[in-house]
Fold these 2 entries.
Entry 1:
Amino acid sequence: MKIGDKVSVLDEDIFGIITAVSKDEITIIDSDGFDYQYYKKELVLESNDFSNLTISPENILEIISEKEQKKNKGIPKVKSKDKYLPPMEVDLHIQQLVTKTRGLDNFEMMNIQLDTVRYKITFAISKKIQRIVFIHGVGEGVLRYELHRLLKEYEGQLKFYDANYQKYGIGATEVYLFQNKK
């Protein structure tokens, strides 16, 4: 490659004319007058004369392997086993959370249940557990309403929906936690 040759840049839509050549770097100017510097291996000589073009199967395989190495570099592989793990189940019935309910009013029982939800979500995030099923029962729907109101506070960190009807009936909510894979 020499000054005045027309070149194009690999992996970019830039064409230009060589204006300067140093050891490994070549400076080109594009049609808009912008200067760019590239390594020789990043440029392709534009020529209508294909007689000096030597492409062999080895060259093609070498180019493909270089591209694949660059493409896969630094991308962590994510294992899909998480979607097959059973969800963590949390029964929010007050009898499952405390030994005695005598002396507790409805407000205190609700706070115990919602504190349990907060604790279990924090625990699941710290242990990278992606799914939790909160079993709240049917009843009058007050616990379900409060549970959904609490889960809306975690906007962007989780999504929730009715759990599997065949397994839990209509008295459960499943929570999917978005986990950062690092």
Entry 2:
Amino acid sequence: MSQDRVLIVEDYSRIADMYEQKLKLEGFSVEVASNGELALEKIGTFKPQLVLLDIMMSGMDGLQVLQKIRSNIETKSIKVIILSNLDSKEIIDKAEALGIDDYITKSDLTPKEVVDKIKIVLNNLDTEAKKT
């Protein structure tokens, strides 16, 4: 069985590094993108099963990245979890309308709890694949 691939899209390097190390310790293959444009490039080459996506980034924000992921036939089935400090209902509603798999407010969960959420979402992906 190959490693699950997770792309972390986060412009704050300390947070990205923390999640990268935690996910690698849990056996994931991980890449990090520090902005939306780089994220889209890495999605094409790394082909992650899941993107852990921040909303607030300079240039292309997370909702714009999500919209591009969902509008491309080759990437629309990638699981996306928003990991953000924003917890406004308006932002969450926009993200849900674009088809996120989960929305996590950074301050609400520990890194271990975030990894547990990632495992749940990826387990659901494995279950869906077995049905087809």
